[in-house]
Amino acid sequence: MRATKPGISWRLFLCSCLFLESSSQDFGGQAQFICTSVPKDMDICAATLQNSVPGEDLKTTVMQLRETVLQQKETIMNQKETIRELTSKLARCESQSGGEPVDARPGGRRKDAGAKNTMGDVSRGPADTLAQLSQTLQSLKQRLENLEQFSRSNNSVQANSLKDLLQSKIDDLEKQVLSRVNSIEEGKPGLRNETEQRGRVESTLTSLHQRITDLEKGQRDNRPLDKFQLTFPLRTNYMYAKVKKSLPEMYALTVCMWLKSNASPGVGTPFSYAVPGQANELVLIEWGNNPMEILINDKVAKLPFLINDGKWHHICVTWTTRDGVWEAFQDGVKRGSGENLAPYHPIKPQGLLILGQEQDTLGGGFDATQAFVGDLANFHIWDRKLSVGEIYNLATCSSKAQVGNVFAWMETSLDIYGGASKWTYEACRQLN
């Protein structure tokens, strides 16, 4: 053996762990070992991995495949979400085309925004619709009777001719209602055109209301400006009256009015006052099967009123910001009281006061199902708490009754919209 030269390091030739399977055609079906030179001080496995180029390629390929799978999974999830949305929309369309009611309830207290019905009976059954039409016809008949009495006392030929024309139209409407009743009882296919029939009836009723209103205008010169009442014959989102001026800031209040309604369920919203940023600043509402409520700054107190019997009732609510104390009076008698109703919150100014509709937004967002149905008169607001005696004078139509110092009931103080009409005041007649 030759001696080792100084300064020269020897490499060891070791067989690495790389094992390759070859086909029998290339290598006769035998396994083949590849030997690699490895420095003496290097780890054998590290050297093996360093020289295993095919393994690195496989690792890169696997990572690419994994990324592709994740992308495809995300695409599939997005497609599933799209399918769910389309299925939901299709179900809603089928539900609406089939005449089924769409479930909606207010955020907090009102219904969700959406395609709102102009008629409150759209989602009701035919029997409910007919009952409401019958009530409307009765109201029109009563107004015609009042006009007839007026024309007799004034011997007005024009009033008589208009009355006869309106009576003829009412008779035609009654025939339409009777025809629909027969269709319901016999189950005829004519019910398929119910929407069109209702549209024609609505149009005719609106025309009748306008004609009667025009006829009643001739009586205005013969009565005081406060001797009138508002009539809301149907649940719609377009009949209302707007008070021309806003309310001032108030730390106490009394609101009183005469109401007559037999609407069910709930008489609706006699009035609502909204301000910027708060649609429920001051609201009186009886919605659905709930009792009548008063809302101040969206805080609620339930009122013990029972008024939907088709008779005139006088109601008053008093409130003070100190401790939120309130009292409720019906027909001059105290029916309930409470406290902690929006305590220390003054009624804000610069808002809109609407009669007959509930505001979801300032001056709008009306919902037909919350509309007031009936008659309203002598609506007054004070910026103080009235005494029991003062409220009794109002409820008994006493000559000592006061008028509101914030808002007083006057024809010139209101703008009327959508077919709501003003006609001869009759609330106090039942007491005389």
Structure description:
There is one protein chain. It contains 7 helices and 18 strands. It has helices at 24-27, 44-50, 53-97, 126-154, 157-186, 194-217, 388-395; strands at 12-14, 19-20, 32-33, 36-38, 228-232, 240-243, 252-260, 268-275, 278-286, 293-296, 299-302, 312-320, 325-330, 333-338, 352-355, 374-382, 414-417, 421-424. The strands form 4 sheets. The protein has a 7-stranded antiparallel β-sheet. The chain has a 7-stranded antiparallel β-sheet with strand order 11-10-9-8-15-6-17, with no helix packed on it. Strands 1-4 form a two-stranded antiparallel ribbon. Helix 4 packs parallel to helix 6 (194-217) and helix 5 (157-186) packs antiparallel against helix 6 (194-217).
CA-based shape: flat
How would you classify the helix and strand content by structural class? Answer: alpha+beta
SS strand fraction: 15-25%
- Strand tally: 18
Overall pLDDT confidence: 74
C-alpha Rg (nearest Å): 40 Å
